[in-house]
Amino acid sequence: MKRFAAFLAIMLLIPVGAMAGQNDDDDDNGFGLAGLLSGGNKEDLPPITLSAGMPLAAAPLELKSGTYYEIEIEADGSQELALVGAEFFRAIWIDEIVIKGLEIRPLGLDSVEFDEAGTMEVGFIAVKPGSYFLKVPGSTGETQRLEIIIK
């Protein structure tokens, strides 16, 4: 029953244009994006930095359920690094991941990895309240773990 309620909540948050595959550039039919994806309820988050031995972020992230967020994940190429956080990724709805102008619209995500320097931007809606984390796999240091709270 909890899964159905979460599914129903997500479906109520997705505007019809997004479900039909419509994007910002495709408004020939007179319908633009509405709801959460229209940008009226969007916040930019401070970037996550992947660098050998450096902290991922300056502070934990505090998110509000129902808000659209964009975050950049930046790798400096000092080491091949990944971020894992399957529970966090299941608590959000990912709109898109943008890498060098290429837009990816995944159904789900478990982790991301950088083999070299680069930046990806992730746009998502925080859905399920709780405490989560993203971390560098295999690391034990607190600076290699980013706490995320969805209220």
Task: Give an overview of the whole structure.
Strand 6 (92-99) and strand 7 form a beta hairpin. This protein has helices at residues 2-13, 16-19, 86-90; strands at residues 42-44, 48-50, 61-63, 68-75, 81-84, 92-99, 102-104, 111-114, 118-126, 130-135, 145-150. The longest helix is centred in the first third of the chain and has 12 residues, at 2-13. The protein is mostly beta strands and 151 residues long. The relative contact order is 0.21. It is built from three helices and eleven strands. The protein folds into two domains: 1-34, no CATH class; 41-150, Cupredoxins -  blue copper proteins (Immunoglobulin-like), CATH 2.60.40. Strands 1, 2, 4, 6, 7 and 9 form a six-stranded mixed β-sheet that branches.
Question: What distinguishing features does this structure have?
Answer:
single chain; 151 residues; mainly beta; Immunoglobulin-like; 2 domains; 3 helices
